[in-house]
């Protein structure tokens, strides 16, 4: 099998077991090590850090960070998957 990507999900396959940056709907972002994915873009990340952005009462932007040993992300919430150096 050639290592040249021919399908969009082939690009994600190249990132298996690498650190990735995932942008999600709802002003959320996750960075972590890509463990698995499927054709629906459901993904499993290990050593993940999730950042949730929100506005506070003074119209400023605040963020909350959560760390997870492993996390499952449903594919319909995924907007972008890339390596952290590309963001």
TrEMBL record:
<keyword id="KW-0687">Ribonucleoprotein</keyword>
<dbReference type="GO" id="GO:0046540">
    <property type="term" value="C:U4/U6 x U5 tri-snRNP complex"/>
</dbReference>
<keyword id="KW-0508">mRNA splicing</keyword>
<dbReference type="InterPro" id="IPR034105">
    <property type="entry name" value="Lsm3"/>
</dbReference>
<keyword id="KW-0747">Spliceosome</keyword>
<dbReference type="GO" id="GO:0000398">
    <property type="term" value="P:mRNA splicing, via spliceosome"/>
</dbReference>
<keyword id="KW-0539">Nucleus</keyword>
<dbReference type="InterPro" id="IPR010920">
    <property type="entry name" value="LSM_dom_sf"/>
</dbReference>
<dbReference type="GO" id="GO:0005681">
    <property type="term" value="C:spliceosomal complex"/>
</dbReference>
<dbReference type="Pfam" id="PF01423">
    <property type="entry name" value="LSM"/>
</dbReference>
<keyword id="KW-0507">mRNA processing</keyword>
<dbReference type="InterPro" id="IPR047575">
    <property type="entry name" value="Sm"/>
</dbReference>
<dbReference type="GO" id="GO:0005688">
    <property type="term" value="C:U6 snRNP"/>
</dbReference>
<comment type="similarity">
    <text>Belongs to the snRNP Sm proteins family.</text>
</comment>
<dbReference type="InterPro" id="IPR001163">
    <property type="entry name" value="Sm_dom_euk/arc"/>
</dbReference>
<dbReference type="GO" id="GO:0003723">
    <property type="term" value="F:RNA binding"/>
</dbReference>
<comment type="subunit">
    <text>LSm subunits form a heteromer with a doughnut shape.</text>
</comment>
<feature type="domain" description="Sm">
    <location>
        <begin position="7"/>
        <end position="87"/>
    </location>
</feature>
<comment type="function">
    <text>Binds specifically to the 3'-terminal U-tract of U6 snRNA.</text>
</comment>
<keyword id="KW-0694">RNA-binding</keyword>
<dbReference type="InterPro" id="IPR040002">
    <property type="entry name" value="Sm-like_LSM3"/>
</dbReference>
<protein>
    <recommendedName>
        <fullName>LSM complex subunit LSM3</fullName>
    </recommendedName>
</protein>
């Amino acid at each position: 099998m050639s290592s040249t990507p021919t399908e969009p999900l082939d690009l994600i396959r190249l990132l298996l077991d690498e650190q990735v940056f995932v942008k999600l709907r709802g002003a959320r972002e996750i960075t972590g090590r890509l463990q698995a994915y499927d054709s629906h873009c459901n993904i499993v990340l290990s050593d993940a850090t999730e950042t949730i952005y929100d506005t506070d009462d003074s119209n400023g932007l605040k963020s909350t960070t959560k760390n997870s040993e492993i996390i499952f992300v449903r594919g319909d919430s995924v907007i972008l998957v890339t390596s952290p150096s590309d963001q």
